[in-house]
Amino acid sequence: MRIVRDYSFVAPEDRGASAAIGNFDGVHLGHQSVIDMARTQAQAMGAPLGLVTFEPHPRQYFAPDAPAFRLMGREARANRLAKLGVARLYELNFNAALAGLSPRDFAKDVIADGLGLKHVVVGADFCFGKGRSGTAQDLQAFGAEMGFGVSIATLLAGSAGEVSSTAIRTALAEGRPRDAAAMLGHWHRIEGEIIGGEQRGRQLGYPTANMSIDGLHPPRFGVYAVLIDILNGPHAGQYHGAASIGVRPMFNGEQPNLETFIFDFSGDLYGADASVALIEYLRPEARFDGLPALIAQMDADCAKARSILAAL
Q1: How many domains does one find in the chain?
Q2: Rounded to an integer, what distance in angstroms lies between the CA atom of residue 137 and that of residue 149?
Q3: What is the per-residue pLDDT across 220-233, written as a single tens digit (0 to 9) for each?
Q4: What domain range includes position 109?
């Protein structure tokens, strides 16, 4: 997959794609239906499959001090899109200039002249241009005028209602990762580099792979059964484990993070990239009456997680 970040400088081989447009936070089933429509058009035209998105997320750009809301960072999103066969990722720099374009100027300067797209697919609720004043129907009119096709995808509904990033955030905040996965079409994953910690887990007999969740929507704090993929290095592969997300109340922690104990593993993972999939919520964070009680609970957590993961 090729990544393009500036619509003013696009190589000839990166033009002419059929592309889905949106933020695609989580790349859930609704997003995937939009991508599939763009794929169908790409195959019919013999064009690359593309996707236009924005970095930072516009919501993050306009409200930088608001609580973290993203389901995935840019790298995790790119990894997921590559798995879906996206050949051209137009990850445009969202700045004051782009935010200030009128709907017409966005259609002309970005879609038609800048990226040279042949066809675009958007969701029915798509808005674009300064003040989000342009609609999907406006885009269709601009496309007819400027020479690119436009398809509008209907909103996807699941068994529990409309599939949306908001509904997925709610499921995760309530400790329902399986419900989130049903809307995502894949397990919700937290990806990033394994970093050094305070090594308390090692002292307790439970060494953990520590990862930051800074900038991401925090799932419900507590203990989870997880799958962890080590993405590079000598220990690359998929493992089973139990993970804690939160602030470690036994140790007066303040900064939330993710700590994963990998079953039946020994090795140095510092600096490796990992992807942790939340499978099932086991229990909330708690403060125990001493370390023996904590270790006994960790033993029980791991036994339960092993049983859950063995049934996948």
Answers
A1: 2
A2: 12
A3: 999 999 999 999 99
A4: 2-158
